[in-house]
Design brief:
single chain; 332 residues; alpha/beta; Spore Coat Polysaccharide Biosynthesis Protein SpsA, Chain A; 2 domains; 8-stranded mixed beta sheet; 8 strands; 55% helix
Length: 332
């Protein structure tokens, strides 16, 4: 079965060569590589031409969803494997994806995840990679969505569903596509063995900005979709509980400072203890990814800093959703 590896990229000169080296070095039999240059203004196209791949250059920017659709439209393979230009495939990634999809049979889309250790192994990048790895694999038999950093699907089933929705909320085209697949009766599965490394390039600012932006878009989509409380990959019950506990903690601390009543501190401790219990699986995963010292620092970041960005993004997303709903109501 020929596999078409589809890589959308826009201004990805800093990571594309590493990505393509990993793909082209795969010992898996029978695959082609399609790079879709989404109207880049850097040397992306020149880098792609150095590798044995098919390069499709788009004249105008279509976004990641449109670039993936364009690649799928010219793909010759019976199997499509989507990944990103800032991902590095392991030697067994393509073979595992093809085998997993074959075992699952028709009517199934198969996803993978990030390696627990990112390609750029800094503190914030490792936190993000370990967090995503845990969140995407804890419900591998019944995931809410499959992420496009490692997504395998039969070409005929992809085309039957019309591909990714173009013009949807940024970064959520894979979530929308997954939900559409499930409504059409297809099964979603994740094989934790299908892994790709990722280049995050995260410091503190980029980590928090990423959390804010993703939370904002995800909240808008979830309110529109009516599934705000769903345990959905990185928009997990743990993350939602962590953000709620953070808000309770702040309220309790304010209450204590204003009144001096010890009951506020008791409530703060209870909220923190409950949060630690809910997040125990993630905390174990952080320890496995980097040992006790990393886990302690990552837990403090996750519990005391990260929810500030997530909560602010959620508030911004809710405000945008309400404003959009009001405008639509006024236009009727």
């Amino acid at each position: 079965m020929l596999c078409s590896v589809i890589i959308p990229v826009r201004n990805g000169a800093s990571t594309l060569a590493r990505c393509l080296r990993s793909v082209c070095a795969s010992p898996a039999p029978g695959f082609e590589v399609i790079v879709v240059d989404d109207a880049s203004s850097d040397s992306t196209a020149q880098i792609a031409r150095r590798f044995p791949c098919r390069l499709l250059q788009l004249g105008t920017r279509r976004g990641a969803a449109g670039a993936r659709n364009a690649g799928a439209a010219i793909a010759r393979g019976e199997l499509l494997f989507f990944t990103d230009a800032d991902c590095v495939l392991r030697a067994d990634t393509l073979d595992l994806a093809a085998r997993a999809l074959a075992r699952a049979g028709p009517g199934t889309a198969m996803g993978g995840t990030y390696t627990p250790h990112p390609v750029d192994d800094t503190f914030y990048s490792r936190f993000q990679s370990a967090f995503i790895h845990y969140s995407e694999t804890k419900r591998s038999a019944a995931p809410d969505y499959l992420a496009t950093h490692a997504l395998a699907i039969r070409a005929r089933e992809f085309r039957a569903q019309g591909g990714f929705a173009e013009g949807s909320l940024p970064i959520l085209e894979d979530v929308e596509f997954s939900h559409r697949l499930r409504r059409a009766g297809l099964r979603l599965r994740i094989d934790p063995g299908i892994q790709v490394g990722h280049v995050f390039g995260f410091g503190l600012r980029r980590s928090l900005l990423n959390a804010f932006v993703k939370s904002m878009h995800w909240t808008q989509y979830s309110l529109r979709n009516g599934d705000l409380l769903t345990d959905s990959g990185t928009a997990s019950h743990e993350l939602k509980a962590n953000t709620a506990a953070y808000c309770v903690l702040l309220l309790c601390l304010c209450g204590y400072l204003l009144t001096g009543a010890g009951g506020w501190l008791g409530a703060a401790l209870a909220a923190t203890a409950g949060n630690l219990f809910v997040s125990r699986g993630l905390l174990r995963s952080l320890r496995a990814a980097g040992g006790a010292r990393f886990a302690a620092a990552a837990a403090l970041y996750y519990l005391l800093v990260y929810p500030l960005a997530v909560g602010a993004g959620a508030a911004g997303g809710a405000a945008r959703y309400l404003a959009t709903s009001a405008r639509r109501g006024a236009a009727r």
